[in-house]
TrEMBL record:
One GO MF term: phosphorelay sensor kinase activity
PANTHER family for this protein: HISTIDINE KINASE, SENSOR HISTIDINE KINASE CPXA
Stated name of the protein: Heme sensor protein HssS
Membrane topology according to the record: Multi-pass membrane protein
Amino acid sequence: MNFVAIIFLLMVIVLAFFIAMLFLVNHFQLLTPERDGHLFPLYFIIFLSLVIGAALSIFVGKRILQPIGDLRQAMSQVAKGDFTIQLSEEKQMEDVEELYHDFNLMVKELGSIETLRNDFVSTVSHEFKTPIATIKGYVQLLQNEALSPAERGEYLERMLEGTQQLTHLTDNILKLSKLENQGLGLDFQGFRLDEQIREVILFLQPKWEQLNLSLDLDLPRTEFYGNEEFLYQVWLNLMDNAIKYSQKNSSIHVHLQNTESEQIITLSDEGIGMTPEITERIFDKFYQSDTSRKTKGNGLGLALAKQIVELHQGRIEVKSSPDQGSKFKIYLPNNLKNS
């Protein structure tokens, strides 16, 4: 619109100028053959027309066509995979400035997506590579006929652990993909929330008994409307993490609070805790605070839990300090059935 307005205004000015020139020529009879140099005004008008036309062409070329050409070249670079290119937004017409701003923003977003994709591929490749290499190594060892039955059984057990790790990783990736693609198309139904949490605790009993952990449970009877399958995964991931990072002979606290508008589930441990930097990134996909990978896991559990809670229109919060344990709070609204 600015471009059209400018061209229209220039045309009006030029038209008014030529009308004024023709009026002067006619008024003073400058083009009469009887007058000496009567063709000079005509030559002057032609010359002035050329100057004005050239000025308009330069203006349009520099202010409108050149920015479009620069944008075309920049888009060609982006098409080749260069997401670092940025266009200067200064000293441009308002519409061109907005166009450049949107282009720069798009390139930044594409660069971020490309970085995430590369990180995802790199991390998944690393996660798959470790158990596969382990399984391959024990397969080679099993080819030794001199192995004792005890050694053979130990190697088979290690191979089984590797396959379970691969299964757990693929399951989590598939669940995240399902959540991201299906979104709010999850199947909601009524179930006992307190019983579900107890089932998870019983399922993980071998793990917390091995560390001699004591459990402080406060789970009043609670009817809830949501996706039973995925919420089970939330409690499983949170409880498994609490056990994994707890000290021997410590305690885990699981409380369920019923309110009129929501259910509040609090799960806290007395484990190693986390720094503020780790706490900020704990829900990122594939993020692991233990870069040495001494602890089992693939950095998907908490990301999966957060996404499930958000699909139930809830939220999850965490508070933690090093050597002081961690406390997770999950808020689930009660009005999902009517939403």
